[in-house]
Amino acid sequence: MARLRITNPKILLIAIGLGSLLFVGSFAFADEMVSASCADHLWFVVPTPDADAPLMLYHHAREMEGPYLSPGRTLPEAPLAMAAWDNQVWMIFPAKPGSDPPKRETLTTQIYSKSSLGFYYYDPPDQFGLVDSLSGMGILVGFVGTADGPIALRIPTQRAGIKIVGREGSTASDPVLKAPVLEQLHGQRWEQISLPSGFSPGSQCAMVAIGKGSTQLVILSQESSSPASAILYRRVRKDQWVESKFEINLGNLRAVTTVDSQIVLAMQEMQESVLSLSYLRQDSLLSLTELPLPKGLWTLVGMSDGLRFIEQTNQTTRTIRHIDSIDGSVGLPVPMQSQRQLVMRAIHIPIIFGLGVTILVIVIITRGGAKTTPATLPDSLRISAPTARLAAVFIDLLASVLVVSLVFQYPINEFSKLPVWTTDILDTIPVLLVIGLTFIHSMICESIFGRTLGKSLLGLRVVTAQAGVRASFAATLVRNLLKLIVLLIPVLVLVGLGNPQVQGLSDLMARTVVCQDKPKQDAESPKDR
How many domains would you assign to the chain? Predict the structure, then answer.
């Protein structure tokens, strides 16, 4: 056993008494889950009863719209801390014993949404990404995700303030961190960034990130001279910090998170069995709500639509409750389960396909002969080409997209989510609005003028198949109701493309055709030449 020599005998008793305080500054407790969250995603780590996978990383997304989890990923050990930004999460693990210099391994992974199949998946699916390890010296008291990469705050241990001399190879001879360090992961390397001038962390310390891109850092530090006071350091620019003091005992801090760029603290008074959630203002606290202290593992995280409180009462049961970030109302705990099956999220898809097949069968039975019966048209008209018809439909749809985009402020990429390919019906609202507007436009214009905007620009019109005159209102209504189905299931366009008279489902049911004027030389009869 290595011998230790303490240069000041008076602090021998202090050194012995500090044995349980070597991790002062960490605000994690034994009953808190290691977790991380951002606007749309959250991750947390919990133990499982499976001996082959004792620790599991779970993911929950705001768009899951319920108490659902993505399939978990096993972890080699419990991480010290986690940080998240967008769809990516980083995890820092304890330093390996005997490593020289001590290093904390840092892993990362990203999760993606497969909207067409209705589930979330990791890429790569079977392994974590390894980035530059964080130094193992000092205490990790803060780890947050930002748009520019995660940021870690390390502060000296209590041993750094006690002059202990040990033999080479002993624990006492390990290098110690002598000053706090703030580092950011740029690409694959940790790079030091500036701390507040004269920053001297107290016995309790925490860090969060707020603002656009979560790039505005906030550090909370207990005042060394007064346990009931704390200092708030806020980074307003890259190298500029402002500080303020307020009355709060960070020794009662159990969790800190953010929601809508606001900092939320979960405090527990000594001997109390409740958690008090409060917003942190510039120099005071604004009470939000209270929760009974959980009996099992728990975590409090913030997302763009409010707070989430997750508990694990046993190794197989996890619950989640929503906390409103405005009025503080707390929802009932709901058991979490694997994300919904595709058939439950996409029940509208088989309904639409079934409706389309039914319509197709009806058309074949009742109007099958129309495919082979030539249309009776005046000499001045001819059946339009398939490309002209498709171009006219495209113009009508484009006009509807522009109107819906301007009125409802939808970005253009939202109109790519077709009902038959998107598992969440809410995602198809922009497309459904476009289809509805196109129906109204086609119904009005074809019943009055016999043509829509697109058909008018390309010289096309809708007429009856047997007389070549403008279709009646009833025929126009039938035609456009069937056109709705075709727009919902675009593959049904193939029916018209394979028809010698270019009659789609809507034309076959309404007994109409889309035609255009013949060129003058074609319209003239032989006796006129």
Answer: 2
